[in-house]
Amino acid sequence: MRTQVGIIGAGPAGLMLSHLLHLQGIESVIIESRSREEIEGTIRAGVLEQGTVDLMNATGIGERMMREGHFHRGIELRFNRKGHRINMHELTGGKNVTVYAQHEVIKDLIAARLQARGEILFNVGDVSLHDLDSSAPKIRFRKDKNGELQEIHCDFIAGCDGFHGPCRPAIPKTVRTEYQKIYPFGWLGILTEAPPSAPELVYANHERGFALLSTRSPEIQRLYIQVDPADDIANWSDDRIWTELHARLATEDDWKLIEGPIIQKGIIAMRSFVCDPMQYGRLFLAGDAAHIVPPTGAKGLNLAVADVQILARALDSFYTSGKTELLERYSATCLRRVWKAERFSWYMTSMLHRHHDHTPFEHRIQLAELDYVTSSQAASTSLAENYVGLPME
Ligand code: RFL
Ligand code: PHB
């Protein structure tokens, strides 16, 4: 099989890249190790930056998002049993955040790719990368997991295979530097059949640990609590989860958390991670394959989309004028923005979670930070401009 760009992974990065390349007249083939049903059903991110929303609209895949998404002009930071609103719309000159689930973005992208006769091979196995430092790299894989070995011959490979995929390890160890921070806490996330308890997202710092109130639709809500990342979900009965949520989100006024049946629950660990460089020869990494952020800043999917926008532009410049300059600068261009999102995600995580090794002094510093960021116009503006998304370059 031959194509211009071989894409490994049908997450937001791989699918959006294939979509953007198609609009530029560049051919690609995506290979994905999971089934279509699985990737369309995996519950992950919920918050889209203004830039992601604008890109979806500009490239013709925003229609359902505009109909079914929720457009929020602010967020609430809750601490000492009081809510403090950050009016992001006002502080950023009219930008919003959109709550629209990642798997809905995935469905919209897959539908658009298939309608345009794009090729996505699901359920592949044994993926390996070859001849990356030549001008004719190859991807080898098995169709339908255990089928015959096949090859994709291409000009470029896009490694969009998430944190655990084979692309990043294909960059020789001597070439890449990895930066990592593992946090001593994780998130227990639930989906519940209940109406929204608040009009906007609520991030709560509480002595029992962090809690987050988010939404999916008028009928389904998404909530998280900070837990030990090694904890077993079997230890968390629905009652225990609601008790924690009530305690951590409680306010001194008569605000009420609305309960409903819990229809999904799970625990995720949290880390910050960056691989530098994000490219090697004809291989370009994008999204979680190259960097991970803790979800407190709601940045992961948005960073994946920003990377592939930069990559699509660089590939366009190569195919239309033969210039390699943007491709050579790809990693440096992405990493400037990535490190700022890493900083912001680390900052939000540090400010909002309970750190068991914190001294009373450090705890007071954390509360002072929250007080400052919610009372100073300069500090609120800084938080808001990072949350809605920094400029592309
Ligand atoms: P993905 O989504 O992991 O997709 C990678 C794809 O590659 C496939 N793959 C392979 N395919 C072929 N061969 C192989 N050998 C392969 N190995 C793997 C995988 O099956 C998969 O389909 O990476 P991508 O595209 O870079 O997208 C990144 C985002 O998914 C991720 O950053 C976000 O989900 C992070 N995130 C959030 N991001 C936001 O922007 N806003 C949020 O509100 C937000 N909330 C979250 C989040 C992530 C969370 N979890 C579960 C980690 C909330 C949570 C709880
Ligand atoms: C979500 O709705 O899943 C969500 C919202 C905000 C975050 C992370 C996840 O910071």
Q: What is the annotated CATH architecture of the largest domain?
A: 3-Layer(bba) Sandwich
**Total count of strands:** 20
- What is the CATH topology assignment of the largest domain? FAD/NAD(P)-binding domain
Report the CATH C-level class of the largest domain: Alpha Beta
Largest sheet: 8 strands, mixed
Describe the strand arrangement of the main beta sheet, using strand numbers.
6-5-14-15-16-13-17-20
- Percent helix among the residues? 25-40%
Derived from helix and strand composition plus strand pairing, the structural class reads alpha+beta
How many domain regions?
2
Mean pLDDT over the full residue set: 97
Bound molecules: 8-demethyl-8-dimethylamino-flavin-adenine-dinucleotide, P-hydroxybenzoic acid
CATH superfamily of the largest domain: FAD/NAD(P)-binding domain
Which blocks of ≥5 consecutive residues have pLDDT under 50? none
- Proportion of residues in extended strands: 25-35%
Pfam family, one: FAD_binding_3
Keywords: FAD, Flavoprotein, Monooxygenase, Oxidoreductase
Protein name: 4-hydroxybenzoate 3-monooxygenase
GO molecular function, one term: FAD binding
Describe what this molecule looks like in 3D:
Pfam families: FAD_binding_3 (PF01494). One of its GO terms (biological process) is benzoate catabolic process. One of its GO terms (molecular function) is 4-hydroxybenzoate 3-monooxygenase activity. This is 4-hydroxybenzoate 3-monooxygenase. With 393 residues, the chain is α+β, with helices and mostly antiparallel strands. It folds into two domains: 5-46 and 101-176 and 277-347, FAD/NAD(P)-binding domain (3-Layer(bba) Sandwich), CATH 3.50.50.60; 184-270 and 356-388, 2-Layer Sandwich (D-Amino Acid Oxidase, Chain A, domain 2). Helix content is 36%, strand content 26%. Strands 6-5-14-15-16-13-17-20 form an eight-stranded mixed sheet. A six-stranded mixed sheet has the order 8-2-1-12-19-18, covered by helices on one side. The protein has a three-stranded antiparallel sheet with strand order 3-7-4. Strand 14 and strand 15 form a beta hairpin. Helix 1 runs parallel beside helix 6. The protein starts with a strand and ends in a 5-residue tail after the last helix. The mean pLDDT is 97. The structure holds 8-demethyl-8-dimethylamino-flavin-adenine-dinucleotide (RFL) and P-hydroxybenzoic acid (PHB). 8-demethyl-8-dimethylamino-flavin-adenine-dinucleotide binds at residues 8-14, 31-34, 39, 44-47, 102, 124, 127, 160-162, 165-166, 189, 268, 287-288, 295, 298-302, 304.
